Structure formats: C-alpha cells, structure tokens
Amino acid sequence: MSDTRQDRNLKVHNPFRDLKVTELIEDAHLYRDMFSENILIGETSNIYLPGNVIVLGPQGSGKTMLLNLTRLPVMAEWLRTKRAPPEPLREVPPYFGISINLNRASFHSFGNISVAKALRVEKNPWLESIAAADFVTHFLFNEFIKGIELCCREDNDELRKWLGFDYSCLMDDQLAARIAEWDCWRGFYAGCDTWERLRSRCSKRLDYWKDFLRIKGQEPTWLWNDRPDIEMTMHSLGNLIRELGSGKQSKEKPSLFIYIDQYEEIKALSHKHSSELQRIINTLIKSRDPVVFYRIGARTYDWGTELRISGSESRIEVERDYSIVDLTSILRRREDRVGYIYPKFAADVARKRLERLENMDVSIERFQRVFGKWSAKKESELYYRCDNKKSRARAEDTIRGLPSAIMRQIIEICDNGEPGFALEMRLASAWALQKSQRGWSEGEICAGLSANPRPWHKQWWYKERKEIGLVQLASHAYSQRRYFGWDTLLYLSGGNISAFLYLCSEIWDTAAREGVDPLDEEPLDEKIQTNGIISASTKWQERDRNEPEGSRRYYAINRIGHAIRDSIRRDLALSNPGHTGFSIPKLSLYKEGDDESIRVRTFLHNAVNWAIVEERDHASKNGDGQPRLKYYLHPLISPYFEIPIKRVKEPYYSNLHEVYIWLFGGDEVKFGTDRKRTRLRKDR
Amino acid sequence: MRLPWGSFLDISQSFLYDKDFVVLGCLSSEDRCCKVPTVCHQELDDHHVKTYLLQVIDPPNAFPDYSVQTANKISEIRERLEADYVRYVMLPTLDLKATEDDLEESLQDFQTKVEELNIDTIVFDISAFPKRYFCFLLLRLLESPFPTNLIVTYTQADSYLREPQHLASDLDPCSNLPGFADPLVRPDRTIVISIGFEQLNLAALIDSFAEDVRRTKILLSFPPDGIFSRRQWAVIRHIMGDSNISHMTEIVPALDVERVCTRLYNWLDESSGLIFAPFGPKPHTLAFALCAIQHDFGLYYTQPKAYHPDYSSGMGPSWAYVVKWDGYPCYFRNVYSV
Predict the structure, then answer these.
(1) Is the predicted ipTM greater than 0.90, yes or no?
(2) Structural domain of residue A403, as residue ranges?
(3) Which of A17, A23, A269 sits opposite B172 (nearest CB)?
(4) Residue A363 in domain
(5) CB proximity B182 to A under 8 Å
(6) Model pTM score
(7) Residue B185: pLDDT above 90?
(8) Can the peptide bond before residue B59 be classed as cis, meaning omega within 30 degrees of 0?
(9) Which of A163, A464, A619, B166 is most buried as measured by Cβ atoms within 10 A of its Cβ?
(10) What is the structure's pLDDT at A680?
C-alpha cells in the first residue's frame, strides 16, 4: 500500500486539497463517498423532515453539504449505488428535492432592469416582484421536469421505489397534458400535451427572461395576464408528487422540497430591490404549504434582516412558519463538552478523504496518531531544552521584574533539569509578580514559592495561564510558536469543517515539500505541523480580504489582533489570561437608531458570518447582571497573530464606544492596557 | 471574425481620415484617460472631434475611502486636459455600481446628443472605464443601429501600482456584469478565466459554476515581463494550488483581441458553451465581451467597490480595434469574405 503511494507525487495527491464542498455538490458520486451521514444527519434531522427549515452557520461550516442531500440527483446517486438512503434517513418520509441558486440565476438583476420601464409604466415595485416571481416559478418548474426525467431513467428504479413512483405513470403523456391544464398557469401551457412540449414552452419563457436580463427582450406585456401564481404552482407541484407517490402509505407519502441557495447574496447585489426580492421567498415560506417545504442555507447573521412577505407588513415567524438548524451550536465545543460531535465528524471527514483519494484504509485512531499529542511540557521543551546548559541559562532571562532573591529562589525550585522547566519558571515568576504587585513582601513571596503544592500548580491557575506562558516563552526565545497535536488541530478549526480541511491540506503540502509522507510518520515532525498550521492561518486571514466587506474586516482585525498580541506579551504577571477576547454589553450592541451601535453590530455580525470572529453569550461578573456578548478572533487566525487559541476565564470588558474606535478609528488600538494600569494603581 | 486593429494613429489614418467622430471616454484618476482625447484633438484636428467624458465614482460605503485622493487626481487630470486645449463635455456622474437601468439612461442621453450632431462614428476609449461599464456600453453600442461605426481604443499604462498595495479592494459577491447574465444552468460548459494582477475572489466565482462547468481554461497575457508574470502566476497558484495546469493554460499577447477570439471559438467547438471570468487585461475582456455578445454567453466578475487612486501611472502606446463598421459588428465579418 505504502509503495503504491510513494510512486505518486504526494503534492499532486493531497487528499485534503479539494476543500470546496461545491465540488462534491455537483459530483453526486463523490458526495456519497465523502459525506459523514451517520454523524451529521442525526443532529440535523429537521433538514430532511417535512417543514420549512433555515440552516444557519458561518462560512465553511457545512451548510451546503447538508442541504445538498435534499437534492434529487444526490439522493438518486445514493440509492443507485447503495440501494437505500443514508442510514439516518431510512425512517424519514421520502422527498422530491429541486433547487435554485439565486445568485447563479441572476435573480438579483430583477429590479436593476426595470420591468415597469420596459412596459413604459410608472415605477412599481410590485411589477418587479411579479416578474421575478414568474422567473422563479418557471425556473423551478424546469427543475421539476428535470427531476421527473431523472426518475424515469432505467437505472433509478430504487429512487422510484423510495418515492413510491410508478414508472408507467411518469412516462404517460396524459400526465403532462393534465399539468398543462392547471389553473395556476393561467393558460400559458395550454396545448402542451407531452413532457417534451411542456419543457419546450418552459424553456421559451426562461429564454425570454434571459433576453430581458440582457436588455434585449420584448416588452413583457403578457405579464399582466398569463403569469402563473407562484404559491399555487408550487402547491400543485407538491400535490402531484404526493399523487405520484401512491405506492406509499399515507404517512410516508413524498413531499416536494425546494432548496433555495444564495438567498443572502441578494442584499449585497441588489441595493435597490433586495427587500422586494427577499420578500418573494419569504412569502413562499409563509404559505405553510402542507405538501411543499422550503430549505434555505444562510450565514449566521444574514438571516432575519428582512422577514416581511410581499405586499404586506406581516412577517414570517420562527417555530410558526419555519424552524432553524444552527450548525454553530451543533458543532461548537461547549464548556461541559456534552454532545460534542465535532471531533468525531472531523476525523470521519479526514478518513473518508484518505479512503477515497488515497485508496487507503486509515483508521481514525491512526490518523490522530499522525498529529500526536500536545502537552505544555513538550511545547516548552521546544523553546528551552532541559538537557542543554545554554538553553537553561537563557531561560533564566524569562524571570523579569522581581528582586534578585526571589529570582534565585524561582531558579532553584524550577531549574530541576526536567522537561518543561522553562514553563515552570515562567509561571512561578508570574505568580510572584502578581503577589509583588499586590504588595506582598519578599519574605511572603519566597515562603509562598516554597509551599507545596506549588501555588502556580493549582488546577485552574495553571490551566488558565499555561498557554499564555508558552506564548511568552516563544517570544522570549525569539521563536515562532510551535503548534502540533490532534487536539490542537480541533481547537484551531473552531468547529468549522472547512477550517479543519484547510489545516490538514497545508500540513500535507508542507510535509510533501520536505519529502515526507505524512502517513508514514507517527507523529509527524512538529516543525512540519507548525509550518503547515501557520500557512493555513495566514491563508485563512488573507482569504477573508477578498470576501464581501472583507477589506474593512481585514484592516480592523489586523489592528485588533496585533493589539491583543502586544497586550499578552506585556502581561508578565499573567493577571488577565482571558484577555484574548473582549465583551460588550448586549443592550448597547442592539440599541435601535444608534449609529455606533449599528456599525459595530454589522461589523461583528459579518465577521461571525465569515468565520473570522467567534461570538458567545457571556454572563457579566461585574455584578450589574447585564447580559454581555464576548468576541474572540477565530482560532485559526490566532497563530497568524501569535495569540492563544484556547479561550479561558474572563475576556476584556470593553464597551461599545471603545470597540467602535478599534474598528473604525485611525489611532493605534490599545487593548485592555488602560484598565490594567488603573487596577494596578488601585492595588498599590 | 475580422477585427482590424493596430496603433491608434494607424487605425485613425485608415478609418477616420474623412470622418467626423465623437470620443466617449472615462474621466478617472489614471493618467492614461487623457491620451486618446488629447491625441484626437491635437493630431487629428482637421476633423470635427467632440469628446464626452463620463466620471464614475466609488460607492459611498467603499473601503478604503479614496474619495479625497481620487478627487485631487481627477482635478489634476482636468487641468492637464485644459492645458492641452482639449474641449470636452462631462456626462452626468454615475456610481460605480450603477444598475443596468442607470447605465442605459446615461447611454441614451449620450446617444441623443451625438445623433443631434449628425455623427455616426464613435471612438470608445475603454482605457479607464471599469469593466462593468465598458462591457455594457459596448453591448448596447454594438447591438443598436447607432452608431454605424465603432472603434474601441485602449491606452497602455507605463506602470501599475506595486505590491503589496492592492489595485482594487472591497469586493462584492460574484455576479454577472450588467447586460451579461446567463441565468440558465446548462451542463458541460467551459469557464474561461483571464488572469490579472488581483485574484478578486476568483475562487468564489469558479465555485458558483460548479453545476455547469466541466472544463477550465486560463488565459495569460504575453509578453511576460518579470513583475507582470510573477503577479499573474501568484494569482493562478492561489486559485489552483500546486495542481498541474499546463493543459488548461493559454498565453496570448495582451493586445491581440482577434487572437483571443480565435482561441475562444476553438474552445467553444469543444463544449456546449462558454462562461467568462474577465479578470485580466482590458483587451482580453474586450475579446470576451465580443464573443459573449455574439453567442449570448455570460460575463461574471467579483466587482471591487474601491479602486486605488494610483492604480496606474503614465501613458504608453494607444491601440485601436474596429469593432463595428458600416453597421456590421466585427464578429459578423468573415475572414475569407473580403
């Protein structure tokens, strides 16, 4: 097995390189092999059950991957080769899934090219809406016909069986003739008595809209009369699917699923009419059709900005009109780690890629061994080695700002020739510095240092400060911080599967450049892992610059990231280990009509959407009981700024105005320092 | 296709020597926007030349906000034009993200003015026009009966803004250029990407077409001088990683629009249709636009909202392409029929 792999060029055959899920989306066969159905579907089963569903999550969290399984070609591939739906969907009623990618279909262009103008009538948003709705109706009908054709393929007998469709019924032109007579079409399909004629008439209408969007269509005068009613049409299509699924018992009858992709991009692309266009889709959701169910994937904060329906102030309501599947809460590590499925998911994704592209049977355990285990002691040894005299002497320089007697005592206690001595020194001196700043005498500090167990070994004190201690050691040693280990990889990816694949891909490429086969090394050299991780971190940060609103984000996040790094390096007493993030009172962030509040909120929401910042609820320890929100840079960009990847203790308590200045001001960002100084003065 | 092209002076001597014509250009912060209007007024002063300039401004929420620096540079350019005795008429200013309707209205206003002058020839200087403008204007000018004659001109810059600064920033999501939508998914198409100095989220654009595209072709420009080439390959590496891309890459001289078109027709023979991502030099975009107009293909781009005021500096040679003559667009002229 290994020989076969060595024959290949490792760089060319990086199993993690093809990060984009879109590739899997259009290759149903590949999708079937790569999708971690048993892990994900169980947690997100609502997506596959009747009901309108909005799937939320930041960029790269796997929304599209999950929603893709609602599309008929993907399910057809699954059934064709595995003879059954994915295991967790076996008990779910069948569905006939069609989709539209609104951005790809240029949906946002409606309104930018005015139908009212073409008809030489006064501006009329309603007219623009009905034109866009007409386009969507025919687009989806075209997809519906494609779906029926797919079901008619001879090799899709398992798909027909799953849906309860009868082959002869599908092929019957009488069915096409019946569809053409539906009232919802208002006569547009009259006379189309075969599937071929239906398709041809539908294409004609779609071609008309294509010409219209290229500014060369005729006046759409017919829009007044023979435009179909979108809700009624979808309902009729849903009913037809029910009827065709007569082979099933009533509770298992198939439904029509409609997956609407790129709903959130309408806003960025159509400044004048985005609201009207989004309201068309909202209207479909509001209809709460018993046989048609809509699915929308949106970045966390892109959903909810426009919830009104067309021609009314009425809004769609969560739990009443639709339910939400929030991938952030499903995949993110909670403090209690209960129900934390992400490690299993990430390992499964990696295993499937290796199996598929390398034709290797790599167990999850073996893959984890490639990265090895991280420990603070092990990392400390990479900066200051206990078996090297010079290194030990240099480590003594990390003890700063203390009287010589205390320094000597720290060296005596910590320089014991054992691995991790430098981290011991750093933590002991930080503890001593804290006490000194609080006015303890030299004698008291020396006595404290000698105590057993050592005060800096107290569980939480140690746990919260060891990573910052290591960041400072790396800085003192003029070294790049080293990153390695399976758990580190999971922390860095922050519950984002694209981030995880980015990391694996960059580590693989780095190893290949060194002529190392990553799967032959257990564990893989930590320098290779570090270089790969730094490269992934840099690319993740750079990638964002090119995303919508990314230029501003890149500039502001750079300022904040470097300010956090400087603040951490300066904090030799490790007094504020949680100051790798900041929190803001929730009320100030959601103040209506306040410009600062709106701008900060929009910025932070976008940063969460694009997986550059993480947001969590946060109970204030100020005693004011005010709810706060805390924000950290995404773990994957932490190596780029050389800040800790783990979030501990209390973040820096900031306020709206201060964050506004960081994000939109031109001055240097001072992260937390003033507060520290004030506190020190008070202590003295 | 038959597309007469050459240096602007050569083409003007062959095609414009007996004609009154109108110059349509863009007033921007780039030095090269002056070149064609100045040459027309100084070198071709025997003729009746009238110049119309359109100013395009970055949207108010663009980041970084270059509005002050850009306004200062435009003032300098205007002073320079006046010092060279170039008389011009300013068309109403438009936002960079103007909709199709806004663009159409502006164009109709311009066409009415020109028709009143009884002139049927337009020299359309694309040198400083953003792509979303010049492709739309080209489409409308080629497809409408007026003008009868249309010559596109392009002036090279002496140099471009150096790295690590970015020529353009603050990108919109991937979308069709105005007038070049291709909303229907049709499988087995080829996406043709021309590569420039900036990646501008080209990767997201490629993702958008996963459903249609079976092949990718990359167009690089020649001659490959050191910096130019390095920046182009950096963009390719970013999109394609370390994959072997030699089989999908084609190198065509930056100014040879006709040759780019020939390549496009070859690729069209091998697939059910083309989708264009014009991220490269403007003459390559011109070729894409011509092919897209002829065959109703889509042009897709991730539009930057902010262009650096020092995007380019200096003025190189000017080139001209006769895209429409006697009412016939160049793509309807057969090479062998003349």
Answers:
(1) yes
(2) 376-476
(3) A269
(4) no
(5) yes
(6) 0.91
(7) no
(8) no
(9) A163
(10) 38
